[in-house]
Amino acid sequence: MLKHLLKASMVVSVFIIAVAFLVSCTSEEAAETPAVDWGTVEFTADNAKMALAQNKDFEQAEVVIEGGNAQVIVKPETFWDDTDLVKMAGEAAISAGDILFKNPNLAQLKVITSAVMTDQYGNEKTESAAYLIIKRETAGKINWTGLAERHISDPGNIYRVVDDFYVHPGVLKNVKTTEIKF
Question: What is the pTM of this model?
Answer without folding.
Answer: 0.78
